[in-house]
Amino acid sequence: MTGPSGLEKQHKHNWQGGRSSGSAQPELCYLAVGKVVRAHGLAGEVSMAVLTEFPERFETTEWLYLGDPYQATAYRLESYRWHKQHILLTLGGVTDRTGAEKLRGQWVQVPLAEAMPLPEGAYYFHQLIGLEVITTTGERLGVVTSIIETGANDVYVVEDRGREILLPAVADVIKSIDLEQGQILVEVIEGLI
């Protein structure tokens, strides 16, 4: 797999976290595994849209963090259960519908350190944001600023001095990703730029 993985969906929201490219942006701390869509019942349960392909993580997760990827509030996960396509969460301190309604729209997250390991060649989007993009001929195209999910393949948004390039994350284009060097090597095919 040459592109990022859709396994834990922090990346789905095009958050601009991770590697810095000279900006004073705060360090990304959390990875979204769901989003609160509504309160469920009267006892404080919340219904969460699932954004992880590892829902089994809730068996061992003790704490969830609700908020944005840089700052969030910790809630003890007291219980969870499936309800249709969503997971119903019981969170410590949320005891009624009013409290649950206040959480509507919040990202349900885990610390980056708790991200599930990915197979060789798969990456989380936050690992790719900020990487420098270089062509196989040595030309610098810019830096990955966000990633768009299209359904067929992901598209890397590369920016450099006001110029934006959209690169499909397919094997014909993305030749290698080197996190240690902070670079993505690409083959520019005709009509791409």
The CATH class of the largest domain is identified as: Mainly Beta
Q: What's the CATH topology name of the largest domain?
A: Elongation Factor Tu (Ef-tu), domain 3
Side-by-side strand order of the widest sheet: 1-2-5-4-3-6
Low-confidence stretches: 1-24
Structural class: mainly beta
Number of helices: 2
Largest sheet: 6 strands, antiparallel, barrel
**Helical fraction:** under 10%
Strand and helix order: EEEEEHEHEEEEEE
- Which CATH architecture of the largest domain would you pick? Beta Barrel
Give the tally of structural domains: 2
Structure summary, number of beta strands: 12
Beta-strand fraction estimate: 35-45%
Report the CATH superfamily of the largest domain. Answer: RimM
Average pLDDT level: 85
- Computed Rg: 19 Å
Termini separation: 23 Å
Shape: elongated
List the SSEs and their pairings.
Layout: E1 30-40, E2 45-50, E3 63-67, E4 72-83, E5 86-91, H1 97-101, E6 107-111, H2 125-128, E7 132-135, E8 140-149, E9 154-160, E10 163-168, E11 174-178, E12 183-186
Parallel strand pairs: 7-12
Antiparallel strand pairs: 1-2, 1-6, 2-5, 3-4, 3-6, 4-5, 7-8, 8-9, 9-10, 11-12
Structure write-up:
The protein is mostly beta strands and 193 residues long. It folds into two domains: 30-114, Beta Barrel (Elongation Factor Tu (Ef-tu), domain 3), CATH 2.40.30.60; 130-186, SH3 type barrels, CATH 2.30.30.240. It has helices at 97-101, 125-128; strands at residues 30-40, 45-50, 63-67, 72-83, 86-91, 107-111, 132-135, 140-149, 154-160, 163-168, 174-178, 183-186. The model is unreliable at 1-24 (pLDDT under 50).
